[in-house]
Amino acid sequence: MMPVRVGILGFGAIGRSVVDSLLEHKEEFHLVGFSDVEQVDGTPIPQMPVEEMIHASDIVVEVASHAAVREYAVQIIESGTDLLIVSVGALADRSLEEKLLDAGPGNLIICTGALGGIDYIQAAKILGRIDDISLTSIKKPGVLSQPWMQDSMQEKLAAGDERVVVFEGNAREAAEAFPKSSNVSATLALTVGSWDTVKVRVIGDPEAKQTKHQIHLSGEVGESTFEVNSLPSTINPATSSVVPYSVVKALRTAHGSGYKIM
Ligand SMILES: NC(=O)c1ccc[n+]([C@@H]2O[C@H](COP(=O)([O-])OP(=O)(O)OC[C@H]3O[C@@H](n4cnc5c(N)ncnc54)[C@H](O)[C@@H]3O)[C@@H](O)[C@H]2O)c1
Fold first, then answer.
1. Is 25 part of the annotated catalytic residue set?
2. What angle do CA 146, 225, 233 make, to 5 degrees?
3. Angle at 134 between CA 130 and CA 135, to 5 degrees
4. Domain architecture of the chain: domains with CATH
């Protein structure tokens, strides 16, 4: 079988680790190159213009930003190339979500990213009614600061010596409150097919050595809690270290050889 041709959009914390990992699977994946708004030197694969990369790829992996999804997602899918995204919060924009759902012939693949339990929740949704679904995310206070927060909240986060609930609302509101990092709540919203019913709580905790995401689900399937505690990426503390490997997992499930766990 010919290796699947992969283009990488964004050569940052996640992109670099995805590339390093995929280079260990050359019989399955051929890395055509990467695109980035910044010039990056000394890389193991070539940097190239976005259009050239899209044209040369069977699948583009977006590991860049919400802005990159807004700028390139429709173009990539309409070119017939598949697109796997991690900047899922971009889809909180209703018009972009609708355009992407209608776009083709390429496929849009949402990466499960830093979350666990999505496979079970997908099955629970097919089974039937979901009565309650919530996400509590606990992170180090320093990575949560946003321009809309009151001075008192900003000061508490900067001091980093007390536990602070910084946000409570639904997944759509979470995407507005954290415009660059609401990927986890967005992934949950897309999984259950509703931005309004997913309740989101974000907490800054100075004791948090790891980033915690806890999902609580109740419905026709029963009642479940899924919790992950991930160490931050050593390159970007705002990113969980597992995320690049969830990208590689998704690529190998879709295109790799051997048995598949889905
Ligand atoms: N789904 C999840 O669970 C999850 C978890 C963590 C991070 N993320 C998202 O993944 C994305 C990447 O995270 P990271 O930690 O690697 O960030 P990073 O800042 O380390 O790297 C991003 C790279 O993409 C480039 N870039 C940004 N906008 C671009 C554009 N429009 N076109 C081309 N290149 C662009 C930047 O120059 C940078 O090199 C972010 O959007 C982040 O919110 C998702």
1. no
2. 45
3. 140
4. 4-113+242-255 (3.40.50.720), 118-230 (3.30.360.10)
66, 213, 216, 255: the active-site residue = 213
Ligand 1 contact via 242 beta carbon (within 6 Å): no
Return the HEC string of 140-172: CHHHCCCCCCCHHHHHHHHHCCCCEEEEEEEHH
Ligand 1 binding pocket includes 246 (Cβ within 6 Å): no
Residue nearest to atom 27 of ligand 1 (CA): 64
Amino acid at 180: K
How does pLDDT run across 172-214, given as a tens digit for each residue?
Answer: 999 999 988 899 999 999 999 999 999 999 999 999 989 999 9
Alpha-carbon radius of gyration of the chain: 19
64-102 residues labelled b (16+ CB within 10 A) or e (exposed): bbbebbeebbbbbbebebbbbbbbbbbbbbeebbeebee
3-state SS class at 110:
strand
Provide the pairing of β-strand 130-139 with 198-204: parallel
- pLDDT band at 245; cut points 50, 70, 90: very high
| Residue among 11, 14, 178, 182 whose CB has most ligand 1 atoms within 8 A, to mutate | 14
